[in-house]
Design brief:
Organism (chains A, B): Nocardioides flavescens
Oligomer: homodimer
Helix content of chain A: 25-40%
Shape of chain A: globular
Structural class of chain A: alpha+beta
Number of helices of chain A: 15
Family (chains A, B): Belongs to the FAD-binding oxidoreductase/transferase type 4 family.
CATH topology of the largest domain in chain A: Vanillyl-alcohol Oxidase, Chain A, domain 3
Distance between the termini of chain A: 33 Å
Radius of gyration of chain A: 22 Å
Largest sheet of chain A: 8 strands, antiparallel
Domain FAD-binding PCMH-type (chains A, B): 42-221
Keywords (chains A, B): FAD, Flavoprotein, Oxidoreductase
Strand content of chain A: 15-25%
CATH class of the largest domain in chain A: Alpha Beta
GO molecular function (chains A, B): FAD binding; oxidoreductase activity
Chain lengths: 459, 459
């Protein structure tokens, strides 16, 4: 057999075993690495799982895949919710989660160099020891990996002040489709030598290369973080209050909005009585040296239309105020399966987005709980349904489609921080248009001519 | 004549005139649009100048250039210092500076949509009316255009806190090499639908497309900005003090360092006596709600090793403290021609960088004044020489080369914020390596198969 022709699944596995340790074809292992948190089933059966422990493992895997036109699905913790890591037919699943070392952390340069399998919260904890933080904080940060965060350009609650993953990535080591190792970017804060390849790989969902290392920017950890919460009669008053925060040029480090449906589900699951106190909840934080002054300003602005508002006097109280936000998704998932949607609109349109989603819920008869990173206009409408159903019911899909249409109608995007993955591909085309799709396809072919990297996803 | 074959210069001009208004072949106009602030001569004579006033003008020009394989050199104000806008032989010079309208400025969404010829400081002034700012502030901001800033991913003094141009660009309208109009990105703060084409065009120095519009992120304008200055015995003490600022996790909104040679030239040109007060000067600012507390902390940290330090008590005093920095380059240019270099090193290596540049000046006998955006590790060694000389003297070129080598040796880059342009192309290869060059060439070919966009630059 030459190394440039398609081979049978068995032959592929044999070739893999000859080159890479950590190859498994155990059905249970394959099944465990075929899905993610999207809740969707894998569209096909993979031929093998490779648990990479070195850059060389990844290079060998890609060389073989490139030569034999075998699809490769890279994955980290499988915490994605858009289906980007779902296994596809005949694919090699390439698990990077065992490459989990923090290789260096320079407290003066405020740069960490990591392998892709490092857990997000683990890096943040390591940074904390030096008075630093890793700013991007996706909700899945306790188990998501940095490689996955980079692949999806993950967001989180702190992004409203500190930016998303892209802003934290200085440089990458990437294994290309043909196994070449590419270093992008630099270890300095600034630098403009050559094209910005780093940003091209960030958010590319495993379609252009496999991230095997990253130089990440850390930031000073604020010594003071203060929390306020305010209840509102309805979601429109709450959204108006969030707009007022922007209009007053305040810069909260967190600004979250929960609608009535969310509060009611949290109450049901947790035994709280949030919904009795108002039809919408806003939680805000200010941090840094100006935190006291800023949180007073936040309280004044939010308090204007609020039915109640309070400032957390200590950390326990602050944690309590944040509980509803933290438990929103787990509470919803207590009662059913959830499609976690993720639209982003210009923040001046946030009230319209909430109203539009409520109308979609009423029209389709589907349960939708919405909460938002309000400071960014990033809304998560969670469409839930009976977990016992074999398939996603038609009205649920109809509601999801209507939510995407709403996002575009309001000048927004179908995904603020989760990615296109498998589930939103049709909508990508509607959002970005044919010229952009054509350019993206050209770039994809330039980097992965045999289209082996995560085919059928993202692009 | 078919439209897919090379044509004579005369034929090209005739075709241009038939399709686009604003075509000039006047030798004086061509000469005026052939150079930039690099001080280097244009490597060739252009065939025509197109003063674009619409997207359609740019599309028509590119369609023609693509069909006839005519090089196109896009330019804004010509304020670049790396030679990116120098005219080349047989090229159409495409001047975007007349497309200078701010199309919209949304104070609530904090987004401005602009044409490429808007002057940087003009947008900042427009934003100021709404309590906002356009954060990137290149030294040339009073005359540079936003299109040029985007093409070079321009930096500035505020970048240490607010990020470079890339962080301010939400989306672009780009005319591709073949005349297609591409819209990238979005008008929302967050969004991850598809590849990050926006970042690919930012900093690409006119080699991948012509930016004809941009959605730019504005930020709240700090209501308070406080300024301190401190003198040091030498540049090493000053660099150590800047390191201490980082170590204490302070986040100045400006942190500049000037060496003795710079202070002496400013004194000579302006009649000041800065050098008599110390061998190095550090200027720092803090802004925002925590400014008072932060500036006190800055003063305490800088004051430790300083020979003197002071806090500006009013705006006039602050302006006076900043004068030396503002006048550094003009002062140097009073006495000769200047090569404006632009290396960036991990900020922990800043003292070594200053020391290394001093050693290069001593070894080559060339005058080098250095000042730095110290908070970013971004050092500008200004190599100056007799303006009457017809050619750059060999020791000056030797010094420049040694400075680039030093940057790489210290783990840095040959350009922090000015770009590769024409002058640093050899060094790009040494910095990024063959894999990166190959990938950049592949991407270039994917977007500009006939290599008509700013050939010979940047890549």
């Amino acid at each position: 057999m030459t190394v440039t022709e398609p081979a049978s699944d068995q032959a592929i596995v044999a070739l893999l075993r000859a080159r890479v340790p950590g190859v498994s074809t155990d059905p249970a292992a394959l099944a465990a690495h075929a899905t993610d948190r999207s809740g969707a089933g894998a569209p096909g059966r993979p031929v093998a799982l490779v648990r990479a422990t070195s850059v060389a493992d990844v290079q060998e895997t890609m060389r073989l895949a490139h030569a034999h036109r075998v699809p490769v699905v890279p994955r980290g913790a499988g915490s994605g919710v858009a289906g980007g890591a779902l296994a596809t037919e005949g694919a090699i699943v390439l698990d990077l989660s065992a490459m989990d070392r923090i290789l260096s952390l320079d407290p003066l340069d405020e740069v960490a160099v990591v392998e892709p399998g490092v857990v997000t919260a683990g890096l943040d904890a390591a940074a904390r020891e030096h008075g630093l933080m890793y700013a991007p904080d996706p909700a899945s940060g306790a188990f998501s990996t940095l490689g996955g965060n980079i692949a999806t350009n993950a967001g989180g609650m702190r992004c409203v002040k500190y930016g998303v993953t892209r802003e934290a990535v200085l440089g990458l080591d990437v294994v290309l489709a043909d196994g070449r190792l590419l270093r992008t970017g630099r270890r300095t804060v600034k630098g403009v030598a050559g094209l910005d390849l780093t940003s091209l790989f960030v958010g590319s969902e495993g379609t252009l290369g496999v991230v095997v290392g990253a130089a990440l920017r850390l930031r000073p950890r604020p010594q003071t973080t203060l929390t306020v919460a305010a209840g509102f009669a309805d979601v429109e008053d709450a959204a108006a209050a969030c707009s007022a925060v922007a209009r007053e040029r305040l810069q909260p480090s967190l600004l979250e909005l929960l609608d009535r449906a969310t509060l009611e589900v949290v109450d049901r699951a947790q035994g709280t009585d949030l919904a009795s106190r108002g039809g919408a909840l806003v939680i805000a934080q200010a941090d840094g040296t100006g935190a006291h002054e800023e949180v007073e300003a936040l309280l004044a602005v939010l308090g204007k239309e609020a039915t109640w508002s309070e400032l957390a006097l200590d950390e326990a109280h602050a944690a309590e105020l944040l509980t509803a936000r933290r438990l929103a998704l787990p509470s919803i998932e207590t009662f059913g399966r959830a499609l976690i949607e993720d639209i982003c609109v210009p923040r001046s349109r946030l009230a319209e987005a909430f109203r539009g989603v409520e109308a979609i819920a009423a029209r389709t008869g589907v349960a939708i709980c919405s909460f938002a990173h309000a400071g960014d206009g990033n809304l998560h409408p969670i469409v839930s349904f009976d977990a016992g159903l074999a398939e996603v019911p038609a009205p649920v899909l109809e509601a999801a489609d209507a939510i995407f249409a709403l996002a575009l109608e309001l000048g927004g995007t179908v995904t603020g921080e989760h990615g296109i993955g498998l589930l939103k591909r049709d909508w990508l085309a509607r959002e970005v248009g044919p010229e952009s799709l054509a350019v993206q396809a050209d770039l994809k072919r330039a980097l992965d001519p045999h289209l082996v990297l995560n085919p059928g996803k993202a692009l």
